[in-house]
Amino acid sequence: MRIRTEVTIERVRDDVFHRLADELDRIMPLICPLTNSVRLDSDKPLAAGTTGKISVRNGFVSRTVDFAVTRCQVPERLCLEMRYGARSAQSDYLFRDAGIGTTVTLVTDAPAVGPRWLQGWNRRALERHERQDAQRLKALLEGRLKDSANAYSRSMVRLVLIACGLAALLAIALATYQALTS
Fold it and tell me: Is the pLDDT of residue 52 over 80?
């Protein structure tokens, strides 16, 4: 599936490109609440062939995803390929001038995940996630991002509340079952 997201940032294209490329390991965890860390395998400037690892949260478990820069055309395009086991995804960041700012287009190509009946929901979740990441990138580069940890915190609070609600329903069902069978 292909997901396309655009955001216009009120900074010149060279600044936007270089800030993202030069500080990728610091910026990615700030714009994506699922990313714990990014580690580059080299201290050299980002270029095609650069590799590294991204640590991401999936529920309560962390996974390490390998990535490689497959294309780096300063200041127009930055392409990353991420691999986890046999699965892979590509993300292209396209930069173009937009009046007084820069339009960043993020195009993600990733295989459909899960059973066919669940793939529509997964696609919408990925589209929402990409839009939110783009908005956080815009806020960060325009100097308006305050605390990216809040996004992860809200997600965890929601998850804990849902788990508590399900546990309460299970307890009620168990108590009802015991009352009926005694």
Answer: yes
